[in-house]
Specification:
37% helix, Aminopeptidase, twelve-stranded mixed beta sheet, single chain
């Protein structure tokens, strides 16, 4: 099925970067990704569902790979269909895809904001949760875009432009170190190695789908902020990065995002996705760029009694 899926991706518009076989090959290194496909009698693909299977505590689980905002679900659209026909088509396609899923003890995956029809999953025993990402639109109109920023963000950008310069860079260790620093700030460990990121960086460069941007001091060349951005034909994604702890108040990250938004717009990319966060301070930061809140779906299902008790206990104790 993988080979058929690779052929499908090569000839189909609208398949986002997280569903691309080369991306999945890189991020699913600890397990194996696979795909369910609903194919009509005439050979047309009605829909696909990509999943990542990995062993955890001896159980087979379907979960999110590292550095992957959304796992894959694609359903063919027919613009001429009436609403009831569209719903019927989506319902039948989803039922077919769900029925093809292999046996698993635990399923936990997020889907892109384009997908909102969760009922067929609910009927199959899945639980759903709505999460929120923040998306900036209108990248092709930079003047209007900047005018829609929060005034304080505009001031930060203008101030930072006097002290730092934005540049492209190919050393993924820089952004890895800054992101590690951010994780340590919140008492978390990095969940993957530098070599994992370097391999993914090579795949992104080969497919012309990613770039590391830095904001450096004009005085001493110190890196104030680093962002690795990835993109597909319609959307750019805030993928990895942040500010160095020592320069969090320099405004460099705001300037970096502004310069990236302009460049993405010049590429013909329509929107910028901050790829979600439930933290209040990050929502405040994201919305200061005129980003709108957009819901996306997370689905889970537990098919093992031990895991069900474990996650119930974890939710009750930790939240």
């Amino acid at each position: 099925m993988k080979e058929k899926y690779k052929e499908f991706c090569a000839h189909t518009e609208g398949v986002n970067i997280f569903m691309q076989p080369w991306f999945l090959d890189a991020v699913c290194s600890a397990g194996e990704w696979n795909v369910c496909m609903d194919i009509a009698k005439n050979g047309e693909v009605n829909g696909v569902l990509v999943y990542y299977m990995v062993k955890k505590w001896g159980f087979t689980t379907a979960q999110m790979p590292f550095q992957t905002a959304y796992m894959g679900l694609w359903i063919k659209e027919y613009p001429s269909q009436k609403l009831h026909q569209k719903t019927s088509h989506e319902r039948n396609t989803l039922k077919s895809l769900i029925a093809q899923l292999p046996s698993f003890a635990y399923f936990s995956q997020s889907f892109s904001p384009q997908f909102s029809y969760w009922q067929p999953f609910q009927w199959a025993g899945f639980q759903h949760q709505l999460k929120v990402t923040h998306i900036v639109e209108g990248l092709d109109k930079p003047t209007e875009l900047f005018n829609n920023f929060k005034e304080n963000t505009q001031k930060k950008i203008k101030k930072a432009a006097k002290n730092v310069v934005v540049e492209k860079n190919d050393d993924s260790k820089i952004v890895y170190d800054i992101y590690s620093q951010i994780q340590n700030r919140y008492g978390r460990r990095m969940s993957y190695s530098l070599s994992f990121l370097e391999n993914l960086d090579r795949k992104l460069k080969k497919n012309k789908a990613g770039q590391l941007y830095l904001a450096r001091s004009v005085d001493d060349g110190a890196v104030h902020a680093a962002l690795y951005i990835i993109w597909d034909k319609t959307t750019a994604y805030y993928w990895l990065g942040g500010s160095d702890e020592r320069y969090r108040n320099s405004g460099a990250l705001s300037l970096l995002i502004w310069e990236i938004l302009k460049e993405m717009g010049s590429k013909g990319i329509k929107q910028f996705d901050f790829t979600g966060s439930s933290a209040e301070n990050l929502e405040t930061f994201f919305t200061s760029f005129g980003a709108k809140k957009v819901a996306y779906l997370h689905l889970n299902r537990i098919n093992n009694r031990f895991l069900s008790l474990f996650y119930t206990f974890k939710k009750a104790v930790i939240g």
